Amino acid sequence: MENNSASYLEVGSAGVVEKQFFTYAQPPEKMTLESGANLGPVTIGYETWGKLSPQRDNAVLVAHAFSGDSHAAGFYGDDPKEAKPGWWDSMIGPGKGLDTNKYFVICANILGGCMGTTGPSSINPETGAPYGLDFPMMTIGDIIESQKALLEYLGISSLHTVVGGSVGGMQVLEWCVRYPEMVRSAIPIATTMRHSALAIAFNEVARQAIMVDPKWSKGNYYDSEKPDLGLSVARMIGHVTYLSDEAMRRKFGRRLQNKENFSYGFDVDFMVESYLRYQGSKFVKRFDANSVLYITKAADYFDLVNREPPARSIQDIRGVPIKFLVISYTSDWLYPTYQAKELIQALKRADLDASFCEIEADCGHDAFLIPDQRLGTLIGGFLDGVPRN
Amino acid sequence: MVFPGTEQMRFDLQVIASWIEPGSKVLDLGCGHGELLAWLTANKQVSGVGIEQDQEKAAFCIANGLSVLQGDFNDEVDDYPDKRFDYVILSQTLQQVYEPARLLYSLSRIGRRFIVSFPNFSHFSIRLQLLFKGMAPKSRELPYNWYDSPNIRVITLKDFRNFARDVGYRIVEETAIKTDHHAKHGRAVRSLINIRATYGIFMIEKEAGP
């Protein structure tokens, strides 16, 4: 159980990584989406760490959250000196929770995204212009189909685990109901079987913030100014839901930003205002507004309980030999622990092998992204106990 | 996995382990660091699940390959289908349960058999303290004061037997034990057991309804 704590803290130990691309569903063999719409060609941007074993039995799929990307660990070769490592660098690397000495770790940008995988900002081959709102509505299930195509291309038919937080956790669960025979273990973190009204409400406010920005132009803004204001307000709202009352009290309280007294105006007074504006303006540089619309809607549609057959829901995979490890955080108010417990209840009723841990942390929903040796130790030990065949 | 052999386990757990048939499905309520589950998994090839309220202990078990749910077993037992387990184990916790009758009913519903162990409140040292000191008794097994004790139920072997008879639980196995200070070693008590035993261990099967 004693792990070398130093290895968890070693930033960038996963090494230099390169984003790779895989394209499939070339017309006329387009991909049929859950909605019935067709899409093709589809390109997937992905990154890998570690080596695939000769038996091809050590693959681990990391599913990223709504605004994440394939860059989960390490650095790019051309990164500037001050660049930050991938978003789960504390989890992926030699001796870390997803130990790259043991596992071949894969992370792919999700369908509908804007970080290398086909999404609304990609060129529609039929028009030669970005899709915009002509991009078909996709679902979490469609994301899984695109990941499965990537695994087939990589020659992987079985996953040691599929792991992810938030919308990544939804992908983990969707993998289990769609392809239970391919999944040996599953680690859904800070996630839910279906969005609550609260979660849908926040997403809707974020979408409205984008759509009321006149520069959004019904999604057709790629050759003009972008709806940066709307997108940054959407991100500000998102950030509030990723934090917690405790975290905000601790980080900001009522402290003022670079001033002693109130300005009695609508400029930034409070530190928390400054923080949110900064997060908003940072986000518009890297993310596409239409991708926010599509991905948040896919998350809102996600429901693992009520599904029209032939689509499988959680109760339809009764008794499959997947080992589940469900993790929640005490201060997560976007997907609170009661939702993880509902998932556990469903897993128990379906006679599935489940473990559950609620980690004490005051940093809210985003806690799973914050370096924490407890999470690495838990996941690493759990994966050691998952049979390889 | 570095788990102790059976001789390192608490003596009541050693007795319980000896009652479990190989290859069975076991639920351990309040599994702590998972000593019993790990031993049963390694030596009796059981498929085991634990429930443990403490985050650090639950995480320890999970990181050592055991299937453990962090939570309150009073609630967690309700979600399992009927007869999901061959054995449900509640060791040295019954005296801390707020609604023992309801909990034991749930155990009889989700398990083919259930096993409980608890400190015997009619041990002679306890009787003597009450008789001669006139104060709430304390013992190695029940070391707390009246105002800070988690042990809110006072149970004797006789009480438990009467309860089992009244609600239609058949006692399949019963062992009264006397343990040493660390409860690692002990022996079965065969005479004057309600007076001499420090712990009682019972295996119960619910009698089929009419």
Could you characterize the architecture of this molecule?
The complex is a heterodimer of chains A (389) and B (210). By secondary structure, chain A is α/β, with parallel strands linked by helices. Chain A folds into two domains: 5-195 and 307-384, Alpha/Beta hydrolase fold, catalytic domain (Rossmann fold); 203-291, Orthogonal Bundle (Rna Polymerase Sigma Factor, Chain: A), CATH 1.10.1740. The mean pLDDT of chain A is 96. Chain A has helices at 5-9, 140-154, 167-178, 197-211, 228-242, 245-251, 271-286, 289-301, 337-349, 373-384, and strands at 16-17, 20-24, 31-32, 38-39, 42-49, 59-63, 75-76, 92-93, 98-99, 104-108, 123-124, 129-130, 161-165, 185-189, 323-329, 353-359. Chain B has one domain: Vaccinia Virus protein VP39 (Rossmann fold). Chain B has eight helices and eight strands. Chain B has helices at residues 11-19, 35-44, 55-63, 73-76, 100-110, 124-133, 157-167, 193-196, and strands at residues 25-29, 47-52, 67-70, 85-91, 111-119, 169-179, 186-188, 199-206. The longest helix of chain B is centred in the middle third of the chain and has 11 residues, at 100-110. Chain B is globular and about 50 Å long.
Structural class of chain B: alpha/beta
Specify the biggest β-sheet of chain B: 8 strands, mixed
Number of helices of chain B: 8
Q: What name goes with the CATH superfamily of the largest domain in chain A?
A: Alpha/Beta hydrolase fold, catalytic domain
Instruction: Supply Rg of chain B.
Output: 17 Å
> Any idea of the CATH topology of chain B?
Rossmann fold
Which two chains form the greatest contact, residue counts included? A-B, 25 and 21 residues
- Sheet-strand content of chain A, in percent, reads 15-25%
Overall domain count of chain A: 2
The average pLDDT of chain B is 91
Indicate the radius of gyration of chain A in whole angstroms: 21 Å
CATH secondary-structure class of chain B: Alpha Beta
- Tell the overall outline of chain A: globular
